Amino acid sequence: MSTPEIERLADLLAKLPGLGPRSARRAVLHLIKRPGQLMQPLAEAIASAANAIRTCTNCGNVDTVDPCRICDDPERDRSVICVIEDVADLWALERTASYGGNYHVLGGTLSALDGVGPEDLRIGRLVDRAKSAQVTEIILATNATVAGQTTAHYITERLADAGVMISRLAHGVPVGGELDYLDDGTLTAALKSRREV
Amino acid sequence: MDWRDEGIVLAARPHGEGAAVVQLLTRDHGRHAGLMHGGDSRSKRGIVQPGNLVDAVWRARLTEHLGRYTIEPVRHVAAQFMDDPARLAALSAACAVVEAVIPEREPHPGLYAATGALLDALSGGERDIWPAVYIQWELGLLHELGFGLDLGSCAATGETENLIYVSPRTGRAVSRAAGEPYRERMLTLPSFLRPDGRGGGADDADFAAGLKLTGFFLARHAFDPLDRGLPAARERLDVLISRSSESTESPSADC
Questions:
Q1: One domain, residues B117 and B46
Q2: B10, B44, B76 - which closes a domain
Q3: Domain CATH for B93
Q4: Are both B11 and B59 inside the same structural domain?
Q5: Residue A23: closest CA among B14, B17, B42
Q6: Angle at the Cα of B41 (from B39 to B44), degrees rounded to 5?
Q7: Is A146 within 8 Å of B82 when comparing Cβ atoms?
Q8: C-alpha distances out from residue B184 to A97, B17, B179, B190, Å
Q9: What is the chain A residue with the closest CA to B244?
Q10: How far is CA A167 from CA A79, A193, B78, B83, B85, in A?
Q11: Within this chain, do residues B127 and B205 fall inside the same structural domain, yes or no?
Q12: Residues B101 and B39 occupy one common structural domain
């Protein structure tokens, strides 16, 4: 027989991705068995993050400071902005350690089906940033989906008079990928994006 | 019960953590929804992109249930023209319009075949063919819904030549002479739709005129009764082509 506190904790954990009611109860039991090592530090970390984390008003990244550390970093190349759908994409690009410019997080893609229009994304702010004198290139790194590419085309249109170079990520064969296992769409994109060696 | 059919993906909406409710336009079962486990996962999201041709198996305990789809890819259509904004906009518009106006689980084999032809035209390399095919496809959709336009002869005089207008009231073609007094109110009949027209392809001006024409009747007959406007994807196609048509000089001066 569990207490209302435990029930509430299990209910909240069950709302997390990858956890259902049963796995949430297992997680609660795990936490209860390690109050000092895990439960208390986790509660403090969550409370601390909830109080400190905010969205960067410049790029849409999440950080504890506004503007975020990436926008504020003088070492980064401020002439290039990489446009991404979500903060998870920013983290993925940062993991590569091969990009040193700034970012702009759109917060989603245009979706007629779900009623997401340009006004629901951070496109206006991107246009303002692109028009600043120091920006020379915008990299469109939206996903290779119909919604992602439709959004990329829309942004290209909006940035037509911004006077910046607009590029997009290449589509094609992934590193370690075998042609035999690729779908025809990826192969077509790879053929279209071939380059001289 | 279960069935197997070929289909065209119209939409896939995330459901829960990794699943998606997928809308297909199938050959024998019409527009049909179903739950696809893993449909929103990284490995399977590419299969259910709008416009893709798929082989689908639908299973449910009762026919009225949502049911579950097992979907295998047949052809990734959108991937072939992701870098072309107009073709991508046309694909999105076609999928959005079909999803909005075709009743669920009502077979429309003619529309399925026409949509397949549209996808072939969009995937093809010829720039000037697919816009005409798109307009013909929307005219076919209007016909399938019971609101076909009569563009073969003049509504006023019966003549079959010099047809350059369409009456917004009747949806019938009108000749230059008969329509001249009402030209402000008339819709333009694009040259590739005229009986004496050159046929084949459409330039941007023709395509824009065609979109205005079919958009007007789709809005009136298909969307107004639903108390909604044309889908945002269809509006975006209209804006994109109108802008492109304004930026290029129109060769169809006889419109």
A1: no
A2: B76
A3: 1.20.1440
A4: yes
A5: B17
A6: 60
A7: yes
A8: 60, 53, 9, 16
A9: A157
A10: 13, 13, 20, 12, 15
A11: yes
A12: no
DSSP annotation of B192 reads: G
CA distance A90 to chain B (A): 17
Cβ of A185 within 8 Å of Cβ of B80? The answer is yes
User: Which of A112, A153, A189 has the CB atom closest to B96's CB atom?
Assistant: A112
> Within this chain, do residues B89 and B72 fall inside the same structural domain, yes or no?
no
A184/B88 touch (CB, cutoff 8 Å), yes or no: no
Q: What digits encode the pLDDT tens for the residues B13-22?
A: 999 888 999 9
Interface test with B, best of A113, A166, A186 (most B CBs within 10 A): A113
Measured CA distances, B143 to A63, A99, B90, B191, B214 (Å): 55, 53, 19, 20, 11
List chain A residues with CB under 8 Å of B72. none
Which residue did the predictor score with more confidence, B210 or A2?
B210
Q: State yes or no: pLDDT of A1 exceeds 60.
A: no
Mark yes or no for CB contact A146/B92 under 8 Å.
Answer: yes
Residue B44 falls within a domain, yes or no? yes
Question: Using the beta-carbon criterion (under 8 Å), do A146 and B91 form an inter-chain contact?
Answer: yes
Q: State whether B232 and A171 contact (CB < 8 Å).
A: no
State whether B61 and B99 are in the same domain: no
Q: Which pLDDT tens digit goes with each residue over B91-120?
A: 999 999 999 999 999 999 999 999 999 999
Q: For A48-79, how does the pLDDT look when each residue is reduced to its tens digit (9 = 90+)? A: 999 999 999 999 999 999 999 999 999 999 99
Could you tell me if B48 lies within 8 Å of chain A, comparing CB atoms?
A: no
Write out the two tokens for A82: 């990489």
Q: Is this structure's pTM higher than 0.95? A: no
SS3 content of chain A, % helix, strand, coil (to 5): 45, 15, 40
Determine the Cα–Cα distance for residues B229 and B209; give it in Å rounded to an integer.
19
Over residues A14-50, the pLDDT tens digits come to: 999 888 899 999 999 999 999 999 999 999 999 999 9
B45 to chain A: closest CA residue? A145
| pLDDT surpasses 70 at B127 | no
Same domain, B33 and B63: yes
**How many structural domains compose chain B?**
2
Number of residues written out for chain A: 197
Distance between CA atoms of B250 and B130, rounded to whole angstroms? 18
Sort out which chain A residues have CB atoms less than 8 A from B122's CB and list them: none
Enclosing domain of residue B40: 2-76
- Examine the predicted complex and report whether its ipTM is higher than 0.90: no
- Whether B174 is in a domain gets the answer no
